[in-house]
Design a protein that fits this description.
heterodimer, A: Rossmann fold, 6-stranded mixed sheet, 4-stranded antiparallel sheet, 8 helices, 10 strands, globular, B: 268 residues, mainly alpha
């Protein structure tokens, strides 16, 4: 998935398979994401996106294949690998009873940041999301867009090398969606981080992004937007997605 | 796992539980009202019919309120353990459990820290209850209030571990009602919390045997003896073993490759 051959990938998924009983959810899934790349994971419902995210976050283990984050094997060196990972899950995961600050301090503690270090990073990340002034408000008082911004700030708090986003813009209004899409693309362009973003919203994808199209647990296409369009002979991402998944967008 | 990282994470998890508890004031009052109702109403009503003869660790005849106070401390911890379990099932359904499980620390450590957080909350409740009971003239020796602390930590850990174990099996919040009927009530009533074993023996030897091997009975006896400045080795060992078993199975249940989490799939 990368034109860069000299760098080791931030995320490497190789031959991963997973089954729920007799039902195979993922089969021989392999792809890589390099630093500075924004890779979009596309697939219809039931394609295996959530299962793949659960494996990459080690909510459960892949019985077949190998996943590496920043060069660390997720199964054998899970602590090292997970310390380089930031995640925004599809469901909101902030504690509604706590303030923004308490939620972020909790996350910082889980990643072993000292109090002083955590305060500095919280200020920096919340300021980037224009949420620093609201740090002492209970999360329950924030709207959906602001909660998502806090979740992104939280995911970046410990300086991860890989950011996973599982449909983070679902249910948000257009300005909130755009703000998140712009911000994440800016992170990639700055070369700070690699991003794997699962979405159904094709308009969030930009020309320089990477695509991974997953259907019925298998990778149907992977590469830059230009490469995928060329191999599909499609005019746009929607048409390519339709071709590979036989699904309407 | 670096020591400083582990310490910060454990402190963070315990603090989060305390913050949540402080913000949920109604939870505090409901947790306190339950044993107080038993102390003020149930115990008063049954004082004459359930008279307690001299039985260790007591050295003289005691009022029924005095007898059931350690049992009510156990009740606070039992309900707190189940409340923690309920909140873990809720967190798992709502997704916030994921933030804990994807942090870069061993899962056994994360679960043990979460357990410890729940115990800290139950300790606050227990000491407030003891203070109210003291005002109601249910008074233990002063040293007992200090000596009961390690006993409450051990019993709280054991009952919290049971809650953790149950939470790893329960797939949906709706199933939790069954826990009330099949775990909490039998465990509480089939124990020495409300009546000593010899009293139960008069009614049913079978129930007496069940009550004797009920881990909750052992936890209550551990607390009862400690509150009166004595150490019950058997109860301590039994409670410790029960803690190890419950926590061990719960950790397997939450293991990403072996446990029940695999079967739950995307629900997690």
């Amino acid at each position: 998935m990368s034109d860069s051959t000299s760098l080791s990938p931030v995320l490497a998924v190789a031959g991963v398979a997973y089954a729920y009983g007799a039902r195979r959810a993922l089969d021989a899934v392999s792809f890589e994401v390099q630093k500075g790349q924004c890779a979009f994971l596309l697939g219809p419902n039931g394609a295996g996106k959530t299962t793949l995210f659960s494996l990459i976050t080690r909510l459960y283990d892949a019985p077949e294949g190998r996943i590496e984050i920043a060069g660390f094997d997720l199964r054998r060196r899970s602590s090292k690998a997970l310390s380089r990972l930031g995640v925004v899950f599809q469901q909101p995961t902030l504690d509604l009873d706590l303030t923004v600050m308490q939620n972020l301090r909790y996350h910082a503690a889980l990643h072993g940041l000292s109090g002083r270090e955590a305060e500095g990073r919280i200020e920096a990340e919340l300021s980037r999301q224009a949420m620093y002034e609201r740090r002492f408000e209970p999360v329950r008082q924030l709207n959906g867009g602001h909660r998502r911004r806090v979740e992104i700030a939280r995911a970046l708090l410990h300086g991860p090398e890989l950011l996973l986003l599982d449909e983070p813009t679902v249910g948000l209004d257009v300005p909130s969606r755009l703000a998140i899409v712009d911000y994440v693309h800016q992170l990639c362009e700055d070369g700070r981080i690699a991003v794997l973003w699962a979405t159904h919203l094709i308009d969030e994808i930009r020309g320089r992004d990477q695509l991974v199209i997953l259907h019925r647990g298998r990778i149907r296409a992977a590469g830059s937007v230009a490469d995928v369009l060329a191999s599909a002979g499609a005019a746009d991402v929607g048409a390519a997605f339709h071709l590979y998944t036989e699904a309407k967008t | 796992m670096r020591t400083m990282h582990a310490w910060r994470a454990m402190s963070g998890i315990v603090l989060r539980e305390l913050y949540r508890f402080i913000r949920q004031r109604e939870r505090f009052f409901s947790a306190l009202v339950r044993p107080l109702v038993w102390l003020f109403i149930f115990a008063a009503g049954f004082r004459s019919t359930l008279g307690v003869a001299i039985t260790p660790p007591y050295e003289t005849y005691i009022a029924y309120e005095v007898y059931i106070t350690p049992g009510l401390l156990g009740m606070i911890q039992l309900f707190n353990g189940m409340q923690s379990s309920l909140s873990m099932v809720y967190d798992r359904e709502m997704g916030s459990m994921k933030t804990l499980l994807v942090s870069p620390l061993p899962r056994w450590f994360l679960l043990t820290s979460k357990l410890l957080g729940g115990v800290m909350v139950s300790l606050l409740q227990c000491y407030v209850f003891l203070a109210v009971a003291w005002l109601y003239d249910v008074q233990a020796p002063w040293a007992g209030y200090l000596l009961v602390l390690p006993a409450l930590i051990l019993s709280g850990m054991m009952l919290g571990a049971l809650g953790l174990l149950l939470s790893s099996f329960i797939e949906q919040l709706e199933n939790f009602a069954g826990v009330m009927n099949f775990v909490i009530f039998p465990m509480f009533f089939l124990s020495t919390a409300l009546y000593p074993l010899w009293k139960l023996q008069e009614s049913s030897p079978v129930l007496t045997t069940l009550a004797r091997y009920n881990p909750f009975s052992q936890a209550v006896e551990l607390v009862r003896y400690a509150l009166y400045g004595q150490f019950n080795l058997q109860a301590c060992l039994y409670t410790g073993v029960a803690l190890a078993v419950f926590l061990g199975v719960a950790i397997i249940g939450y293991n990403p490759s072996r446990g029940m989490m695999q079967k739950k799939g995307s629900r997690l």
